[in-house]
Amino acid sequence: MSGDRKPALPHPLPGAVGLSHLSAYDWQAADGVCGGSPHLHLVCTEAYVVTGGRGAVQTLSPDGYRDIPLEPGSVAWFTPGTVHRMVQGGGLRVTVLMQNSGLPEAGDAVFTFPPEVLADPAAYAAAATLPSGAGPETEAAARRRRDLAVEGYLALREALVAGDDGPYREFQWAAARLVREKVPAWRELWRSGALATAERTGAQLDALTDGDPAYLGEATAYRAAPSRLGGYGMCGRRDEYALPRTTLPYEGE
Asked: What pLDDT, in 10s, does the model give residues 35-91?
């Protein structure tokens, strides 16, 4: 078989997970910290596997504000609704594993823009969308987007640290309102991806129970390499894979 055989399955990676690599932005924000654009996911858990450098991920959740150190070998993950901000400490590079591959790329991630932007879908889309390409115009737009997200994030963090979770809760509700119309499309992506993968395992277990391992005749192997290097992601420069729903560019990028 060819070493570059194209995948036949809708999700060639285990468990229908998304995969990308990030080099955290080294742009300084208004609070003097270098890092990415704070955001949350509505239905997907995200994990960072640190492969180089140092840094942190700052999170806002019902647990309050946390600053979780990142160093080679460490793994950090955050469940839906957790606001997270990747912070650069020097050469930070992570491999990102994303639940429900296809959903984050379809708009599951929402930036912590100020309330007036979140309340206006057109204004949100304008602030979140980057020009195509990887030139100076795109970098400038990515920095503006990051700065606007940090502006909203800092207000949420200040209130949460002071014991007021109202603004954080309202951001969650605003994010949910913003994406509500997309949910039917997300459901179809989930059915054909993560759910189909779990159901395939169930069918295989049934076959083994029946003493019929014929499905093993479909065994094969795949190989892939990043197809886009250094794209402008939410948290940093992003390397992606041209595999079905694995790391297609995020909506708005």
From this structure: 999 999 999 999 999 999 999 999 999 999 999 999 999 999 999 999 999 999 999
Whole-number Å distance between alpha carbons of 141 and 136: 9
Residues 6+ apart with CB under 8 A from 217: none
Name 127's bridge partners.
none
Q: Can you tell me the distance from the alpha carbon of 72 to that of 80, in angstroms, rounded to the nearest whole number?
A: 25
pLDDT band of residue 252 (cuts 50, 70, 90) is very low
Q: Distance between CA 33 and CA 147 in Å, rounded?
A: 11
Supply the DSSP symbol for 195.
Answer: I
Pairwise pLDDT comparison (198 vs 12), residue with the higher score? 198
Copy the structure tokens of residue 181: 């119309």
Coil, strand or helix: which one is 74?
coil
At 58, which amino acid appears? Q
CA dihedral 209, 212, 217, 218 (to 10 degrees): -50
